[in-house]
Design goal:
With about 260 residues, the chain is mostly helical. It contains 7 helices and 2 strands; from the N terminus they run ββααααααα. The protein has helices at about 20-60, 70-85, 90-110, 110-145, 160-195, 200-230, 235-255, and strands at about 1-5, 20. It is globular.
Length: about 260
């Protein structure tokens, strides 16, 4: 919107100003309002994910005899991430974690209810991916409108852009270390104590496996989110994603 005095009339009232392209200015304002509304809707949805993940995660830990405690811990980590990273990339994190739990229900459950629920979760993952694409555009428009005369390339990296690749790499490596440590401790205990310690030995390995799954899912989710969002440190993102994917496949094959 441009404000200017009439240069043709020296006697014109200096207090009289004209609005150039008034209709365009109103349209721009309306579009800005819509973008801001969509951005606020994104923040509200992330907040809802934080609350629901927190509640469901706590429920899984409390009812660990009926529900998966490792999934409960994963949900609590997702809730923590939702409170820290209020940006569009979180919807890709939600999508990947939903894919994992959906595949788990399809692979490990013979119950028709959980099989159907697993298919529903895969569909919801696709919906979350669509939301990720939509909110990515909304977030970019909002950030550009908040910093005039700035191009996309000049925008400062978000908190997720700075940390997701390294979270993916670190948690992926840590998952491998924990899984390998659990495996070797199991072998060592069996060699030292003999076959009679098999139950206790497998218990240690199961705990290590559950911890490795939680870290691998977190690594995979943040890595895939970083890759799709084209964050910096691509090598770290790809390395974390590949490491965690291979480990999860290995754990699935060993558990079948």
């Amino acid at each position: 919107m441009t404000l200017e005095l009439d240069p043709e009339n020296e006697q014109s009232d200096p207090n009289e100003i004209t609005l150039e392209n008034e209709e365009m200015s109103e349209e721009t304002w309306a579009n800005s309002y819509i973008d801001n509304t969509a951005y606020l809707a994104m923040l509200s949805e992330i907040q809802s994910w934080a609350l629901w993940s927190l509640g469901l995660g706590a429920a899984h830990l409390i009812a660990s005899g009926l529900l998966s405690p490792s999934w409960g811990i994963t949900l609590l980590l997702v809730a923590l991430g939702s409170l820290i990273y209020k940006e569009a990339a979180m919807f890709m994190v939600y999508a990947v974690t939903m894919v994992w739990v959906g595949l788990s229900n399809l692979i490990y459950s013979g119950n028709i209810f959980w099989l159907g629920f697993g298919l529903l979760q895969l569909y919801l993952s696709y919906r979350l991916y669509r939301k990720y694409k939509y909110y990515t555009a909304v977030e970019q428009d909002y950030r550009l409108s908040s910093t005039p005369h700035t191009t996309v390339e000049e925008l400062k990296p978000t908190r997720g852009a700075r940390s997701f690749p390294w979270i993916s790499l670190a948690t992926g490596i840590f998952a491998v270390v924990i899984f390998a440590l659990g495996f070797f401790l199991t072998i060592a205990q069996m060699v030292i104590s003999g076959p009679e310690s098999l139950n206790n030995t497998l218990g240690v390995f199961a705990i290590a496996g559950e911890a490795a799954i939680v870290l691998s899912v977190l690594s995979l989710a943040t890595g895939v989110a970083a890759i799709f969002a084209k964050f910096r440190y691509k090598l770290a993102s790809w390395a974390g994603t590949i490491i965690s994917a291979i480990l999860l496949i290995a754990i699935i094959l060993l558990s079948l």
